[in-house]
Structure formats: structure tokens, C-alpha cells
Amino acid sequence: MTARLPARPRLIVRRVLDTAPPVETEPQAARIERSRRSAAVRVYIAERAMDDVWRSVGRCPRCGAASGRARVERGGALAGRYAVSPTGQRFVMISEAIPADGASASRARIDIRADDWREIYRRIADTPGCRLLGWYHSQPGFGIRMSSTDLDTQQLFEAEWQVGLVVDPWDGAYRFYRGRWAQRVRWVGFVADAAGPTAPGAASSPGGTAACDRSCAPDRAVPVRRGFPWFAQPAGRMPRASVRSGSVPRAVERAVD
User: Fold this and answer.
1) pLDDT tens-digit profile of 105-138?
2) How far does Cα 232 stand from its chain's mean position?
3) pLDDT by residue (tens digit) across 194-236?
4) Burial degree of 202 (CB within 10 A; 0-12, 13-18, 19+)
5) Burial of 138 (0-12, 13-18, 19+ CB in 10 A)
6) CATH number 3.40.140.10 given to 31-195+204-211+221-255
7) pTM for this one?
């Protein structure tokens, strides 16, 4: 008797028991965005990796200009290492941002499927010393608060040191969460790329310093369009860019801390 195979292949995810983190010295942060001493887990991210996040979601990390990629949600994985300092402080060091370029996406949704995750795991396996630390995705014009769907996805990353990063490519806002209950990260530090010094005259940005992906002047103010792309903006007026948030698309958004 022959066994019948399912018509569609299934991806089975099994929980891997966490091992004790190695003891390492905390990275030297070039700048620290949040610095609560009570942070259970500190999050460090390489500026190069943050630049890769901004590029993958359609925002130039140097000038802040948005491309056509910023019209729909983009996402991917965050990889690096998890360790504990000699003083007992746990931390993660995000060194790689791996975009899921093949994932189907729309204005308010991205579907990272099994084939996308296989490619992500293959790339992590090819990078010595790296492990999956979490995921990231963009919410163009919707702010940086996780939606109910995002919270469900975050529960797949149930270790308290696994992170979720939400970015808004329209205004350059970002926010880190950690653990299955999506707690706000209390410590975020950016680590300069060890490959070389900062280029002279390069502009600062949320993703650190990087070469511009398109022809633009670093000292030119780039307008940011808020609201929905299908809403007409008043002629000659441009809404002020600010950190906004909302779990569902709304024409009027409310500010958060």
C-alpha cells in the first residue's frame, strides 16, 4: 500500500529549546536612541543593517526620499547574535537585515510564505555566527504601532530576546518590540559599521550614514506626504512629518509617545 502525499506541501515549525547565551562584551554604540537602565534585553543594531532595512522598504537612508517600493508593505528578517555581558546584561546585536523580496505585498499587508523563510534561513546559515533574531516590516503611512495581525505574527517569536521592528518609510519613524507580547524595547543602540569610518559630509538619518541610493542633495529638505496616497493633498501645502501611529488605517491619526 502506498502512502498518499498531501496535494499541497506543508511547513511544520517546531520550537527549538533556547540555549544559554555566550558571555560577550556589549558592543560600543555610536549613538543610543533609548537607554533605560531597567532594560531586560538591550537591542543593538548595526547602522549598515538599519540602512538595509530602509532601502528594502523604499526609503533612502541618506536623504529620506521615498521610492515606489514605499507604496506597499515590505518586510524581512533580522539576524545576528544573542549574548550576555560579564555583568549579566542580556543583549542582541543585529548585524543583518534580510529582505523577503519575493513575498507578495499590498498597501496594508505582506505575506512572507514558507519559500521566503527557507531562503532567509539559507542566508542565515551561510553567515557564520548569525541566528534569527526577529523580523521587520513597513507600514507606509500607518505609523509604527503593531496591528492585531502584527501582534499575532510576533507571538511566533516567543523568546523574550527576539524582536520585531516596525518602520514607516513615509516619515522615517521606527520602533522596536520584543518577545511574544510585543513589549517596547527600552534600550536601542546603533553600532557603526566596522568596515570603515563615516564618510565625510554624509548626512545623518534614522538608518545611520550611507551613500544615497538616488540623485539628491543631502542638504535638500525632502517633503513627506502623509495620509493615504489616493487622497489629494492641498496645492502648495505639505503636511508636517512627525512620528504618528495607528493600528488601523485612518484619515486622522493620533500622536503617541
Assistant:
1) 887 888 888 899 999 999 999 988 899 999 999 9
2) 29
3) 443 333 333 333 433 444 545 454 433 333 443 333 333 333 3
4) middle
5) buried
6) yes
7) 0.72
Q: Please, what sign has the CA dihedral across residues 109, 51, 39, 256?
A: negative
Backbone torsions φ then ψ of 46, nearest 5 degrees: -65, 135
80 φ, ψ to 5°? 165, -135
DSSP string, the chain: -PPPPPSS------PPPP-PPPB-PPP--SEEEEE-TT-SEEEEEEHHHHHHHHHHTTB-TTT--B-GGGGS--EEEEEEEEEE-TTS-EEEEEEEEEE-TTSEEETTEEE--HHHHHHHHHHHHTSTT-EEEEEEEE-TTTBSS--HHHHHHHTTS-STT-EEEEEETTTTEEEEEETTTTEEPSEEEEE--TTSPPPTTPPP-TT-S---SSS--TTSPPP---S-TTSPPPTT--PPP--EE-SS--SS-EE--
Every domain of the chain and the residues it spans: 31-195+204-211+221-255
Closest among 64, 68, 40 to 54, alpha carbons compared: 64
Which of 174, 147, 200 is CA-nearest to residue 49?
Answer: 174
Give the cell for residue 196. 570603515
